[in-house]
Amino acid sequence: MSVLTATFAFLFYIATAVLVIFVARKVWIYSKTPAPLKIPTTPAPTTRSGVAFRMVKEITIFESLFKSNKWIWLFGWLFHFGLFLVLLRHLRYFTEPVWGWVVFLQPFGKYAAFMMLFGLAGLLARRIFVDRVRYISAPSDHLMLLLLIAIGASGALMTFVEHTDIVALKSFLLGLMTFSWATKAGLTAMPNDLILIVHLSLVILLMLIFPFSKLLHAPGVFFSPTRNQVDNPREQRHIAEWASKLDSKKAN
Amino acid sequence: MAVAEFDTPELKEYPVIPRLQEGVMKHSQPYTAKAEFQEKLGFPGELVDNWQQVAIDKMGELNKKYRSLGVYLDSCVKCGACTDKCHYYLGTTDPKNMPVARQDLFRKVYRRYFTLSGKLFPKLVGAEDLTKEVLDDWYSYFHQCSQCRRCSVYCPYGIDTAEISMAAREVMDTVGVGQKYCNEIIGKAQTIGNNLGLPEPALIDTLEGLEEDVEEDTGVKVHFPVDEKVQMYY
């Protein structure tokens, strides 16, 4: 096994473990922490299914953001939806045989790269040119966009300009998933292409910083009390355990 | 008579988002609560010596009691959707009155002491130590929030600045810098029995005068009871 192949195999396992374990830890903490106040932003749904519908609207069409600012909504939505299609397309490198609907999505996923890059460029432009957004941006906010742009651009380069040995890459990835390095067959070598090495290194970096950065907005949105609570404070008493102890102290 | 100069934004058909003017509202603070009122509520009378540690411990405690705090401090992506939604920003143009910047006064301290990225790379992620300057900023700007929650309507994650400014105020109470119009009023309501701190004889006298006025104006004899058993509450 070459140094390159061994290094990337190792990094992929580490990055996957960090991503899964630390995001799961955050989700665990969020779900275990009480939400003592009933604070759904009105107009709020009064039923559980209404909340589900509200949440679906938030994560698919970014409803609140649409109400707020059309430019941020446009760029943000194009980026996220583009990324979503691109990620679905990438499933073909992790499944054998490739699922039918992934085959169908292939052309959409390919061109979604431009949608994603356009959205990211727009968001970066806002960070630089809108004085309010510039004021609130830390270096990490700029770097996060640059990282995503670099990942998208290097990926698009390989799709449209300079192909890598995608068959070997898929065999390498499937080998990682099935731990084939431990078997007689061994692990297929990763193609030694500069663009691919850049692309995968940056993806690994993104996976590593995900649980420790603002990318936590992805799990966070599901735990936001202003969005996930049912508006029924009169019908049902809402009280956290620590708050009910204060209540009973008063009664005594 | 000296008249304060106001720079009132002109009202146009479509609202114009004003440009930032840093620090224009930095001077604006409420009076601090007197030690006697702070202590009645169980808070220290003045800034305690180890206030930084007390404040950070309190932040950790609140983070365990309120899910909103952790979720909101972690989730903000600085998209800028809320930046022109706060009337305190629109009216003053001070950037720290933008909801996200107001939250960031708290968030930068949270990042410094509670997150890996802020512990390792504070400059990179905009994390800062809790200094006296930061505490002064907290006192100014967390009391320039009316907790109306307008920003939470527009935030794509529903981040509610009121949750953050409530936490910051609680931390400030705990280290000994309470705000007069909250803490003294609560103290008066607890000890004297009404928010204005009117002594009982003065209140009874006022109400007797009011009874006479009502009878004079309407011809109906009304009794305003104080500490008496009544048939019905108004």
Task: Please characterize this protein's 3D structure.
The complex is a heterodimer of chains A (252) and B (234). Helix content of chain A is 70%, strand content 0%. The model of chain A has no long low-confidence stretch (mean pLDDT 95). Chain A has a domain of 156 residues. Chain A is an all-alpha fold and 252 residues long. The N and C termini of chain A lie far apart (72 Å). The longest helix of chain A has 30 residues. By secondary structure, chain B is an all-alpha fold. Chain B has two domains: 153 residues, Fumarate Reductase Iron-sulfur Protein, Chain B, domain 2 (Orthogonal Bundle); 37 residues, no CATH class. Chain B is built from twelve helices and no strands. In chain B, α5 crosses α10. Chain B is globular and about 70 Å long. The mean pLDDT of chain B is 92. Chains A and B meet through α1, α3, α6, α7 and α11 of A and α2, α3, α5, α7 and α9 of B.
